[in-house]
Write a structure and sequence with these properties.
This protein is α/β, with parallel strands linked by helices and 352 residues long. It has helices at residues 7-11, 40-48, 63-73, 85-97, 113-121, 163-172, 226-236, 246-257, 259-282, 304-313, 337-351, and strands spanning 27-28, 80-83, 104-107, 125-128, 147-151, 178-181, 202-207, 220-224, 286-288, 294-298, 316-317, 319-320, 330-333. Helix 4 (85-97) packs across helix 5 (113-121).
Length: 352
């Protein structure tokens, strides 16, 4: 600690990202990255931007990318916000839309950045417990609040809420913003973007890190009615006018333009997930139903931390959370066919 820190810094508990190991030949299934890589059109578009133009600042408003994303989702450009990864978009949403006198509500088991942002921005919050099946019970959120946020599918559980349930919440919770964090929506769910024109208090956040295989470019979005987007723009332009660089803009636009590649690889990941769940079931694991590119699973006869360590010894990295209620579970990214086979073979040896 430093005596030069502000009083706020002393109180912060920073987010701890998933490990990015520096070792070779690992089967890396711990951070939900796309196993197949980005579209070749993305790589070509980035290559074309490697010229003298990099001396110039990028478009501060990402206007072309906003237009492309708006067209893809049937929205207007003024209903689209672009940020440096969905984490930055979330940060701006916490400051612009979720900082109020009443507490912010989110699940007790969810994306662990939410309480970190609350600490950073000094936002009061209340955790709403998932039920015994790790489901979000939206009726529990019908209480006084300064905002509601949850991932759909939830992380790290992978469970999905349908749009009818989300619409029912929005119809009854009209005095605060509801943020749906859709980092994993493309792997099995229907986006709440289609509800935006009906609900002025709905903000939907997405990322290109997962289903578009662009975690290394850091591009995220928020979709909502124009007044919500204006609030995000006001915070963004008080923080960083140029959050998206020229290479990221080019790659993100190309990712939206290669729909065939997106659909092919998305289907492959879903197929691999279904196969992996079948294999885990056969080995005695208990797996939460997942609509994401990961599975959340436990073995009733084997400690979760021990399983994670044994897998690591075999060169396979998965995510283990040392948290109440889920300390026996592993979150396992769905990899390529070969990666899933190597994982299952290792688990078969461990639990035999």
């Amino acid at each position: 600690m430093s005596r030069y820190w502000s009083s706020l810094v002393h109180t912060l508990t920073p987010y701890v990202p998933g490990e990015q190991p520096k070792l070779d030949n690992l089967v890396k299934l711990n951070t939900n990255e796309h196993p197949y890589g980005p579209s070749p059109r993305v790589l070509a578009a980035i290559q074309q931007e490697l010229h003298d133009g990099l001396r110039l600042y990028p478009d501060p408003n990402s206007d072309r990318l906003r237009l492309v994303a708006a067209d893809y989702y049937g929205l207007k450009p003024e209903q689209v916000f672009v940020g440096n990864g969905s984490d930055e978009v979330l940060a701006h949403a916490f400051m612009a839309l979720l900082k109020h006198e009443q507490p912010l509500l989110f699940p007790d088991i969810t994306y662990s950045f939410y309480p970190v942002y609350c600490g950073l921005y000094e936002i009061d919050y209340r955790c709403i417990p998932l039920n015994e099946h790790f489901e979000i019970v939206l009726e529990d959120y019908l209480q006084p609040n300064g905002g509601i946020i949850f991932p759909n599918p939830n992380a790290p559980t992978g469970r999905l809420l349908d749009l009818q349930a989300i619409a029912a919440l929005l119809e009854r919770n009209t005095d605060s913003v509801v943020v749906i964090d859709e980092a994993y929506i493309d792997f099995g769910g229907e986006s709440a973007v289609r509800l935006i024109d009906r609900f002025p208090n709905l903000l939907v956040i997405q990322t290109l890190s997962k289903s578009r295989a662009l975690a290394g470019l850091r591009v995220g979005f928020a979709f909502g009615q124009a007044p919500l987007i204006e609030g995000l723009d006001r915070v963004k332009n008080s923080f960083n006018s140029y959050p998206i660089d020229r290479l990221a803009l080019a790659g993100a636009i190309a990712a939206f333009e290669d729909e065939a590649y997106f659909q092919e690889k998305r289907a492959a990941i879903i197929k691999n997930r279904e196969w992996l769940v079948e294999q885990l079931d056969a080995l005695g694991f208990e797996t939460v139903p997942s609509a994401a590119n990961f599975v959340f699973t436990r073995h009733p006869q084997h400690d979760g931390a021990v399983l994670a360590q044994r897998l690591r010894q075999d060169g396979i990295i998965v995510r283990h959370f040392k948290l109440p209620r889920i300390d026996q579970h592993l979150r396992i990214t769905v990899g390529t066919e070969r990666q899933c086979e190597l994982l299952v073979d290792a688990l078969r040896r461990i639990v035999a």
